[in-house]
Amino acid sequence: MITNKDMAAQTAEFLLTVKAVKLNNEHPFTWASGRKSPIYCDNRVTLSYPEIRTFIRQRFTEIISEMWGDVDVIAGVATGGIAQGALVAQELGKPFVYVRSEQKSHGLTNQIEGEIHAGQSVVVIEDLVSTGKSSLIAVKALREKGCVVKGMAAIFTYGLQVAADNFEKENVDLVTLTDYDTLVATAKEKDYIRPDALESLAAWRLNPEKWSDDHMA
Questions:
Q1: Which of 33, 154, 189, 191 has the greatest CB tally within 10 Å of its CB?
Q2: pTM score, whole prediction
């Protein structure tokens, strides 16, 4: 059985190898919020690599079985968690639904796509967690449907305190395959990043808002 430490390191190396996670201290990335960051994650690229896709699916299914036991439904968070969630649901032989960030403005105006019923237990699959806001919107929608959300599993978390606070406030257990600290340590060990950039990466993790303001063009 793979250990949590080994799992985190292997996941981080996979993400770095296929450039799903990019680190660039000199030319920061701009997030949708407009904030600057030295790190950018696009975990969807892992779906193009069967070995990595299988590794992620298997780790998710192991985590679900160990942490939460049997569940009725697997839910993916749109859009990054849809494919991963469907793979996990297939592996476990469970129904699958996905949750939008908001209700559609046309058609059936669904926020949850797929068949799910009040009283069913659910584990939510997400690709990454930053502040946790979008992830917890999905949890709220499922709870409003009357479902019991046992927890959430994600590929990667930035490890920001605001996310930890948000998940604690909403009483949601979060388990991730890897995290920011492991990613940076693996990047250093495998020479994906220069040692002199580590101080700036640590400063971003400590205070992303200030780091972003300091690096605005």
A1: 154
A2: 0.93
